[in-house]
Amino acid sequence: MKRPELSPVPDPAADQINDATLRLSVGYHMKRAFNVVQADLVATLKPFDLRMLTYTALVLIVDNPGLSQSQLAAAMDIERPNLVVLMDELERRALINRDRVPTDRRAYALTATLAGRRLYEKATAAVAVHEKRLLSGIDEATRTAVIAALHSIEIGQTGEG
Amino acid sequence: MKRPELSPVPDPAADQINDATLRLSVGYHMKRAFNVVQADLVATLKPFDLRMLTYTALVLIVDNPGLSQSQLAAAMDIERPNLVVLMDELERRALINRDRVPTDRRAYALTATLAGRRLYEKATAAVAVHEKRLLSGIDEATRTAVIAALHSIEIGQTGEG
DNA sequence: CAATAATAGTTATACAGCATAACTTTATTT
DNA sequence: AAATAAAGTTATGCTGTATAACTATTATTG
User: Fold this and answer.
1) How far apart are CA A112 and CA A95, in angstroms?
2) Count of pairs with CB atoms under 8 A, one residue in A, one in B
């Protein structure tokens, strides 16, 4: 506002916005960084017609054959009703099977089809490549430390005391 | 109740789900960690009737008085139409003012009211306290490294080559 | 064993976050 | 002056997430 027209820049605070207060928050940093990572992941998975949620579900089913929808929902930290539509989609695309559990006819045993496993392989390889590029500016030691820190935040050692 | 090994557990992956493949992805770690942080932030801001978006907007307006909605939307990395409803809410609650810019009658100059600045102070203090607890298990050096790494990911030095 | 409670999956629904198109009003450009 | 661009707005749709209520089945228990 008080910038005289000495500088060729037309507007003062136009492009330089002060977010120093927000930068004090780790949540702010995480949100901004995660936005970038998520955008990259979404773009990476798009050629495979997968979103983060469908990819995550597919991977967990391939790696944990036979698990139930409830278990999967718990693992993915989403509500059961929301998982149903994910399974509907993966099943419709013949990437997974919903087999009835003989010992508990309420539950489904989720397994990946051959097509599902193939898609898993391709998508996982693509994700690895893209993530490698995303982290190319961070050395291995730091990368490990970041992963560990993120995990420690996730675990949440903030006792109630 | 711990299950003794008298019986071969019918379902092996019952409570222990293997997410090793996903753990190779930083995005997965970030999402899970961010979920925790976000939940904490949401809970922290709830007493002030603020969400992450409204809090972020309020802070940026207080710290950058006079900025326009377009500038704010750019700073927050959200679309202008979505910012409108945020400003509607903050204005309705008399936390900010939308003053017409004399030199450009299309734009609004956003400023915080006294109530807005007071809420900013209280909310920011609360956020700081909660984040401190959230990061209590991480030493200062690691914390700095994590922030730096997150920022470097955000900036995205991944060239197009 | 029958009544009850709990669990797995489902449907319907609602809300927040994010994106795009199209519009009005005002500024800028040509 | 006409065309173009920018700021803000409205309408709309899609994704992700959450809850209530329902069914079918299993587990509990009195």
Assistant:
1) 6
2) 197
